[in-house]
């Protein structure tokens, strides 16, 4: 792989790093990015050696990424080879989870499933409800004709679901005073102001403008 341009999957397999780690290092400027886009994008031929050198410095020497970035700027090819050799016998990173919860409700359901007890040897769980039957009865609080759970994950799920169905609030019209200071800077104040307050803000804006633009008065 040293003479060819590897893909992200090939880099991950050869280095023992997860693709998310490699992408993060590319985003932070530690590793050159791919030469093209898409699943089959190719990285520079020396990307693996640089990747192993970064891992060797991080996992063997305990260097933070900021210090590794400085080292990469001055390291010779021989020094990079030595750093890469430190990663030769490192175990692979933990694999990414197959899927992440898509919402808070999914996360809570996953927690509840992990908290449900497993039956001990010789103990049978109650049979699941038949078709057309509801869940086992609880001791819920009643609101009108609907039974609502009072606590636990079910209650939190219900509150989250109700909050998600609330219509968006209407934004009230508000009065703003905006005073330009520089082409991309302005002083913005919300609320109604009288003439004296506006004059004070204008003087503040002039002072800020003088400081930013280096004017002297």
TrEMBL record:
Pfam families: MerR_1 (PF13411). Residues 125-139 have a biased composition (Pro residues). Transmembrane segments: none annotated. Residues 10-74 form the HTH merR-type domain. CDD domains: HTH_MerR-like. InterPro entries: DNA-bd_dom_put_sf, MerR-type_HTH_dom. Residues 116-145 are annotated as: Disordered. It comes from the Bacteria. This is MerR family transcriptional regulator. It comes from Belnapia arida.
């Amino acid at each position: 792989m040293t003479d060819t341009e590897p893909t992200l999957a090939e880099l991950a397999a050869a280095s023992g790093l997860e693709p998310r780690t490699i992408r993060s290092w590319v985003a932070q400027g530690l590793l050159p990015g791919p030469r093209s886009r898409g699943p089959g994008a190719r990285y520079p031929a020396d990307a693996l050696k640089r990747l192993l050198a970064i891992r060797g410095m991080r996992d063997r020497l305990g260097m933070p990424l900021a210090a590794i970035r400085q080292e990469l700027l001055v390291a010779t090819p021989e020094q990079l080879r030595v750093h890469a050799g430190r990663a030769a016998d490192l175990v692979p990173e933990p694999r990414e989870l197959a899927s992440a919860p898509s919402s808070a409700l999914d996360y809570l359901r996953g927690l509840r499933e992990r908290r449900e007890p497993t039956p001990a040897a010789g103990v049978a769980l109650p049979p699941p409800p038949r078709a057309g039957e509801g869940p086992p009865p609880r001791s819920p609080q009643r609101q009108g004709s609907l039974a609502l759970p009072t606590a636990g994950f079910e209650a939190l799920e219900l509150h989250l679901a109700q909050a998600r169905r609330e219509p968006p609030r209407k934004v009230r019209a508000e009065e703003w005073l905006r005073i330009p200071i520089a082409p991309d800077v302005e002083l913005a104040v919300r609320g109604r102001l009288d003439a004296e307050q506006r004059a004070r803000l204008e003087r503040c804006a002039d002072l800020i403008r003088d400081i930013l633009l280096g004017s002297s008065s």
